[in-house]
Design goal:
The chain has 602 residues and is mainly alpha-helical. 54% of the residues lie in helices and 4% in strands. The chain is built from 22 helices and five strands. It is globular and about 90 Å long. The relative contact order is 0.12.
Length: 602
């Protein structure tokens, strides 16, 4: 059968090696299994030396080869061979492994905090989330605001905040993070409304650089991925705005990173315990060994719960990671030689994985409502007590009230179809067909402001076109690598698309916007990085090649590396070009029109 999500295509390894009772002439000869994914010019780890060649007519006095079976491998050799088959090479720990991504993240932070307070007014959906965050900070729950609250809020007048609860449809995690920024810098400052998004955006760049370093086995490629996300326009705009989606992006990527680390740790443990059992008197369990507690999988469950605690779309992240984990478990046990690898993968790994992901994510999600539980004045907090005829006696009132809240919110999300000038369906997101205009400013004195008869001041969440348009081509490359090469890295990238883009097609009637795709932007960058890596000579089978090999002089005689560098330079140039319309810089109107490449961008 096909093994999506794994690049191991060699035959299954031998089962447990029984000690020989004697040199029976019919005993099978053990041979080490080639380590797919190891460096191609090295002997597989754990392989024994080949016996001397058989005597030839030119060497009649040569000693004949020894009779009987070859010596079975030691436990250590068996474990090393399994590790080579189950695990992809990763860069050795080094100062550059952290310093390189750290410098890229610092650059991203600078881009996200410079002129962060411009404009000093609530833009687009900040009118909801920033005011709700302030309400959480003051009251512990989201409350209503009087008319004209936006103008008063912008000048530091918070008297429009009322105490009666407001009906909101998004969970509180993202709003609490915005509130934390206001607590740190003050709610009077527009930078205070937005600093949480800026910091989380820069941390997302760091996280992506480290994840890409692990996927591609290269600090260089990891830093390239981080740099591309640093200059990705949609991610930059959402990082500079008090809106929730950048937090979805961070927690979703972190959850995937935890699953990748679990893959590495669990496979290392599988190799160690399989070798141990093979060397024992009892031999291998047909299902393979038990792996014990998988802490990184529990971390993924917590992070998935936090993702859903920002927006409910995080539930699709949890489902996708669960499927990915089970597929990886199945292929790992098959590769390790478990005879009943399907049962081992589905039961011995699948059930503990379910418990580590789903209940942990659910408990984490419910815990994010702690402030709502603690304040009787919150919306629907006392619904069960106020409606005893509708409540179930056996269910705790607080949880039943929360359930009713979610029933109402689900009805809102699934029926929202209010027309909007910038609404855009998911099919156009990956080409940035209709980016969202967050802000348009009126300039009173254009001559003084920009030296022209008419000025423009705008925030348009258009993605970096080099990355998004190039990402469509790169996505095709990744799909081919996933299907034909069964490269687990390609499937990891596709998991982001499956979790954060594909589910939106189930709601064609719903009002949606292109900026929702900011959560997808790290995976667009990973797709582009994957294609650039191939241009540099990286291959899935040689994923552990050092950065020096990627930059070897002879490679630059080919066009691939030059194309990769060209893509990087074009992405940086595009970021510099679009910077004014990402950051509300005042420019001449004609300069703004020059940046609106498509009529649908206006």
């Amino acid at each position: 059968m096909s093994e999506p999500g794994d690049d191991v295509r060699s035959p299954a390894p031998p089962g447990p090696i029984e000690p020989s009772a004697g040199p029976a002439p019919t005993a099978p000869t053990w041979r080490p299994v080639a380590a797919t994914g190891a460096l191609p010019e090295t002997e597989p780890v754990g392989a024994t030396a080949e016996p001397d060649a058989a005597p030839t007519p030119e060497d009649p006095d040569a000693a004949p080869p020894p009779e009987g079976p070859a010596t079975p491998p030691s436990r250590e050799e068996h474990e090393r061979t399994l590790r080579a088959r189950l695990l992809s090479p990763v860069p050795a720990p080094s100062i550059w492994g952290w310093l390189g991504p750290g410098l890229v993240a610092a650059f991203a932070l600078v881009l996200r905090v410079v002129h962060l307070g411009r404009p000093h007014e609530l833009v687009f959906d900040e009118t909801y989330y920033v005011k709700q965050a302030y309400s959480l900070l003051r009251l512990g729950y989201e409350a209503r605001w009087a008319e004209g609250a936006d103008e008063k809020f912008a000048v530091g007048d918070f008297s429009a905040l009322l105490t009666n609860p407001e009906y909101v449809v998004h969970p509180p995690v993202g709003k609490w993070l915005i509130a934390l920024g206001m607590w740190a810098l003050g709610p009077e400052s527009a930078a205070g409304w937005r600093i949480a998004g800026a910091v989380i955006g820069a941390l997302t760049v760091l996280l992506l650089a480290r994840l890409a370093r692990r996927l591609f086995g290269s600090t260089l490629l990891g830093c390239v991925a981080g740099l591309l996300l640093a200059v990705e326009g949609e991610h930059l705009v959402l990082s500079r705005t008090g809106i929730l989606d950048v937090f979805v992006c961070f927690f979703a990527l972190a959850a995937l990173g935890a699953v990748v680390l679990d893959r590495e740790r669990s496979r290392a443990r599988l190799a160690e315990r399989t070798a141990r059992d093979a060397a024992s008197e009892s031999g291998l369990d047909p299902w393979g060994p038990r792996l014990g507690v998988r802490w990184w999988l529990i971390a993924a469950g917590i992070l998935s719960g936090l993702t859903a605690g920002v927006k409910w779309s995080g539930a699709y992240v949890l489902a996708t990671l669960g499927i990915l984990t089970v597929v990886w478990s199945l292929t790992a046990r098959r590769t390790a030689g478990a005879r009943l690898w399907v049962g081992g993968g589905l039961i011995r790994d699948g059930m503990p994985a379910f418990l580590a992901l789903v209940p942990v994510a659910l408990l984490t999600y419910v815990a994010t409502w702690a402030s709502w539980f603690a304040h009787p004045g919150a919306y629907l907090r006392t619904w069960a007590a106020d409606n005893p005829a509708k409540a179930q006696a056996w269910f705790p009132d607080a949880l039943e009230s929360l359930w009713e809240y979610h029933v109402q919110a689900w009805g809102f999300h699934t029926s929202l179809s209010t027309p909007h000038a910038y609404m855009a369906g998911p099919i156009g997101w990956i080409v940035q067909w209709r980016p969202t205009s967050f802000f348009w400013g009126d300039i009173a004195d254009p001559e003084a402001a920009c030296g022209a008869a008419r000025c423009a001041q705008a925030i348009t969440s258009v993605g970096n076109p080099i990355l998004w348009w190039g990402g469509v081509v790169a996505l095709v490359v990744v799909v081919i690598a996933a299907v034909r090469l069964r490269d687990w890295r390609a499937w990891t990238v596709l998991a982001g698309y499956l979790a954060l883009w594909v589910p939106w097609f189930a709601y064609p009637h719903r009002t949606t916007f292109t900026f929702y795709a900011v959560a997808l932007s790290p995976f667009v960058v990973l797709s582009v990085t994957y294609a650039m890596a191939l241009m540099l000579g990286w291959r899935p089978s040689t994923a552990g090649m050092p950065d020096g090999a990627l930059l070897a002089r002879e490679r630059w005689r080919e066009p691939g590396p030059w194309v990769a560098v060209g893509v990087l330079l074009l992405a940086l140039a595009a970021a510099a070009f679009f910077w004014p319309v990402w950051t509300a810089q005042v420019i001449p109107y004609e300069a703004w029109r020059l940046r609106m490449w498509m009529p649908s961008w206006i």
